[in-house]
Prior knowledge:
Elements: H1 4-22, H2 27-34, H3 41-54, E1 58-62, E2 69-73, H4 75-83, E3 96-98, E4 101-103, H5 108-123, E5 127-130, H6 131-137, E6 147-151, E7 154-160, H7 167-181, E8 195-200, E9 204-205, E10 211-212, H8 214-225, E11 230-239, E12 245-255, H9 257-270, E13 273-274, E14 280-284, E15 287-294, E16 297-304, E17 309-315, H10 318-333, E18 338-340
Parallel strand pairs: 7-8, 8-11
Antiparallel strand pairs: 1-2, 3-4, 5-6, 6-7, 9-10, 11-12, 12-18, 13-14, 14-15, 15-16, 16-17
Amino acid sequence: MISPFEQRRLKDAKGLLFVYQFGWLRTAELGKLMWPDSPDNRHAADRLARSWIERQLVIVRDLPGGAGRALVLATAGVRLLAENGIKSGSGKGIGQTNDDGWLPPASWRHDLIAHGVLCELHRRGYHVYPEMELRRRAEGYPKIPDGFAVKDGEGIYLEVENARKSGYEMRKLADALSIVASGQAASIAGFTPNAAMVAFLPSAIDERGYNLSHQTRVRNAIQGVAKNDLSIYWAECKLLGSAGVGQVDIQKELICTDRASRVLKILDAWGWHPHQDDGKYSSYNKHIAHVWEDDHGWCYSVNTFDGQLVEANHSATITEAKQAAASVLARIEQPGRTRSAAT
């Protein structure tokens, strides 16, 4: 029978290793990692954190905007892990400290989304590796994902999309996801990625105040660069409070590039005619595809013949706007097969 002292030692080592691997953790995420199926995991993590703080195993940092407190590994925590045969390092250098106090890394909101998705994958039985840990293992690697998860031969390459990317940056992301999803990606820190996952917030606003559908933009970009149909995991994240992820809905979609290309050829064959409002339009199977340019760039919309809006969004160029409209029409014609990820 394990003594209470030994139980505490093992629990300390397990929890502090999570803190080191992620770089910093709130108790909300720590609880999900330590006790993934317990409804009381947050309270248990709060108790554990109080014990660590009393023993100076961690340093507490306040996140902006009332987003909670981040725990980073202190020197005493490094020693405790070393006593358990685990090499680590202090988290004192994470973020910046000035006269006003501690400032987290600029990517902290982005990181919280990645943490939330990795916690959900951990609950589903995946071994998870956050970006901080991957960077330690693959120093000098040109592109590190926001996280990685492994289970039963599947290696999920996680990217968080929560900022509006330029056309060039979006194509780079689409290229990377397409290479991973097609099984052609090089190994990262000894792990082989063969599945791509994109985490996003369902309702986002860009810097101009426009509604921004990250899922639509990434899907359209993949359809523009992929050579074959690809399966992509979507991790739709719902915020809890001012930051952090409360719920993650993971779905898998088959993105069918061939149908979109065929639809675009039909639209081009029918011709793009001047629209009564602005721009140009073409028709396909009781739907109207409309592309136009406004002060912020090119736009597209797909409507039924009786005027019901199906989808509208922004694109970088008129070519991408036409491709995006064709993709919408292709999904209407034969929607991508979507199912829940394995639990």
